Amino acid sequence: MALLKDKVALVTGGGSGIGRATALIFAREGAKLVVADLNRKGAEETVAMVAKAGTEAITVECDVLKPGAAEELVRRAVNHFGRLDCAFNNAGVAGELARTAESTEENWDFVVGVDLKSVWLCMKHEIAQMLKQKSGAIVNTASIAGLGANPLGIAYSAAKHGVLGLTRTAAVEYAKIPIRVNAVCPGVTQTPMVEAGIARRPSMRAVFNKLHPMGRLGRAEEIGEAVAWLCSDAASFVTGVALPVDGGFTAI
Ligand SMILES: NC(=O)c1ccc[n+]([C@@H]2O[C@H](COP(=O)([O-])OP(=O)(O)OC[C@H]3O[C@@H](n4cnc5c(N)ncnc54)[C@H](O)[C@@H]3O)[C@@H](O)[C@H]2O)c1
Fold first, then answer.
1. In whole angstroms, what is the distance from residue 52 CA to residue 123 CA?
2. Is the shortest distance between the CB of 204 and ligand 1 below 6 Å?
3. pLDDT of 182-200, one tens digit each?
C-alpha cells in the first residue's frame, strides 16, 4: 500500500536537490503535491517530472522570506486541493563560509531568515490549517549542523539548531490533536548546494567522504525516503524527533 495515498503534501525548496527528490518520492507514494520554490523554473521541472507519473501537482513560486509568503502558500494549497495533510519545510541556503569573527550581520539575517524564521512561519500557517482538519504531519529540514558544531558556518548552525527547537516545541504543543512535527538531519548530501561548494574547492569531496563512516556523501533520495516515512501514518507514534540521515556522521 502506498505510504501517502491521496494525501496532499507541500514541499518548499521543491525545485532542486532534497526537495525535488522528496517530491518525487511523495508522488510515488500516492500524494498530490504543491511544489514551492523561489526558482519557478526548478519547481515547474519538478511538477513536470511528477505529472509524467500521473500525479496531480501545482507549482507555487514563492520566496519564503517575503512577508505573507507562507500564509499565501498554504492558502494556494488549500484553494487547489481543499486540504493539507503533509508539509516538508525544506527551502534553505548555506550562506557564507567564514569563522565567527569574520562573519557578517547581513549573512546572519539572510541565513537565519530563510533557514529558521521561514520554517516557523510555514509551520504557523500549516498548523492553522491542520487544526481545522484535526490531523497533519510536518517535517522540517535541519542538518547535522543542527546537532553539533559547524565550523565556518555559525549562522547556518544556529538556524539549524533553532529548527530543532521549533520542531520539538510544536510537536509537544500539538501532540494530542495529533499534528506530528519531526525533523530530518541530513549529512552532507549530493545536491546543487553542496556540488557548488565542491566545484569551488574540489579537495572537499574527499574530506566530506571521510567524515561519514559510510565513506560517501548522501543521496537526496535517501533523505526523501526518511521524510516520506515520517509524513506517513507508518510513523503514527513518532513526533518531536531529530532524525539523522547521515551515513553514521553523528554516531562517531
Ligand atoms: N545538501 C546537504 O548536504 C544538506 C545537508 C543538511 C541539510 N541540508 C538542507 O537541506 C535543504 C535543501 O538543500 P539542498 O541541498 O537540496 O539545496 P538546493 O540548493 O539543491 O535546494 C534548495 C532549494 O531551496 C530553494 N530556496 C532557497 N531559498 C529560498 C527561498 N527564500 N524561498 C523559497 N525557496 C528557496 C532554492 O531555490 C532551491 O531550489 C536546505 O534546508 C539545506 O540547508 C542540506
1. 30
2. no
3. 999 999 999 999 999 899 8
